[in-house]
Amino acid sequence: MELEGKRIVLGVTGGVAAYKAAGLLRLLTGAGADVQVAMTEAATRFVGPITFAALSGKPVLTDMWAAAADNRPMTHIDLTRAADAILVAPATADFIARLAQGRADDLLATLILARACPLLLAPAMNRQMWDNPATQRNLELLRQDGVICLGPATGAQACGEEGMGRMLEPETLQEALRAFFTPKSLTEKKVLLTAGPTFEAIDPVRGITNLSSGCMGYAVARAAAQAGAEVTLVSGPVARAAPFNVTRIAVQSALEMHAAVMKRAADADIFIAVAAVADYRAERIAPQKLKKSAGGLPEIRLTPNPDILAEVAALPDAPFCVGFAAESEQLETHAQQKRQRKNIPLIVGNLIQEGFGGETNHVVLFDDAGSHPLPVAPKTQIARQLLAHILALMEKK
Which parts of the chain have pLDDT scores under 70? Predict the structure, then answer.
């Protein structure tokens, strides 16, 4: 939704990571963006313009004089007047240096100098080029001018070395663009969340857990980060990548999740407990794998886990607390009882047969004013609606 109809100029400069720009272009157009590609001459040595033309459905701009010959002498000015943003990916050390100096010695650099829209850069270069003081000075100058720098990441590089300078992956850059176009309703807010299941060990190979996929919690974390919040996500074991601009703290057990949350809760403005935390854990974890025996079942004594949400809500000057209630029946009764028992202003209820573990959900928001059903929708959309409701309640408070 964030990229639907957005007009983006995708600049491609001469680095090995230019091949990733083709994948990024495909993602952007697939999300509904209108993308015009502009390449430096060096970029065409790595990936041919015909590739980008085929993916965008538009001629690729590579040369100012060719544009003038096609009766488009003001392309370098006109192009950005209609654009919502320019993203240069990859942005090489050389190109960054030329931008910092205000150079206009090729079409891409010229249209950036004449732009009437925001500029985002995705640097890509060798680790030593990235660490060079000249590169860092150039980037600092550009940041002072309002340019947004996305990345880079650390990892394996084309030269065979390992380190900082690797361009962010296309999926991450797409997420960064989505965040860029999202209204920043949570700027200067600190949001702490939990997500996923917990795993309570019984012995070295067995444990108590549940079917939570973490999808809802990760969607809320992503939406909060896109809205400008500083987001910390305490996550149980799930097979999901951390959302862009979200600090993830990986935990296994409820005790680990409790410790991670309580360490940070006092500093949070909003706490959203989405995780499906096990109510009980084994009183004693067997040091060796439990074996079958003819004498019957092994005895496993259980003990209650701490109530993380209730403890955070009871803190002096507690953050605005939101809980989740996944029920199998009598949703309103059980959810409201849970909200009152934990003394929190808002709880999100859903029936497990209507969204537990899936990509969509059907939830009802319960607060002091009553119940507020939301239509069945993808969890990403529900996350945005939830945050809007939280902000409305906080403003009333």
Answer: 65-76, 294-295, 354-358
Query: How far is residue 248's CA from residue 208's CA, in Å, rounded to a whole number?
Result: 23
Query: In this structure, what token pair is assigned to residue 46?
Result: 């790595």
* Residues 216-234: tens digit of each pLDDT: 999 999 999 999 999 999 9
pLDDT score at 79:
74
pLDDT at 88: 97
CB atoms within 10 A of CB 356: 18
Give me the amino acid identity at 212. S
Give 321-358 pLDDT, tens digit per residue: 999 988 888 888 999 999 999 999 999 998 877 656 66
Q: In order of start, what are the domains of the chain with their CATH numbers?
A: 7-181 (3.40.50.1950), 190-396 (3.40.50.10300)
For the chain, what is the HEC assignment?
A: CCCCCCEEEEEECCCCCHHHHHHHHHHHHHCCCEEEEEECCCHHHCCCHHHHHHHHCCCCECCHHHHHHCCCCCHHHHHHHCCCEEEEEEECHHHHHHHHCCCCCCHHHHHHHCCCCCEEEEECCCHHHHHCHHHHHHHHHHHHCCCEECCCEEEECCCCCEEEEECCCHHHHHHHHHHHHCCCCCCCCEEEEEECECCEECCCCCEECCCCCCHHHHHHHHHHHHCCCEEEEEECCCCCCCCCCEEEEECCCHHHHHHHHHHHHHHCCEEEECCECCCEEECCCCCCCCCCCCCCCCCCCEEECCCHHHHHHCCCCCCEEEEEEEECCCHHHHHHHHHHHHCCCEEEEEEHHHCCCCCEECCEEEECCEEEECCCEEHHHHHHHHHHHHHHHHHHC
Catalytic residues: 159
Cβ 250 vs Cβ 194: under 8 Å: no
- Which pLDDT score is estimated for 309? 96
CB 119 within 8 A of CB 109: no
Question: Which pLDDT belongs to residue 355?
Answer: 58
Q: How many CB atoms lie within 10 A of CB 390?
A: 24
Predicted pLDDT of residue 397: 75
The pLDDT of residue 74 is: 61
Tell whether the torsion through CA atoms of 61, 67, 71 and 76 is positive or negative.
Answer: positive
The per-residue pLDDT for 73 is 56
CA–CA dist 167, 164 (Å, integer): 9
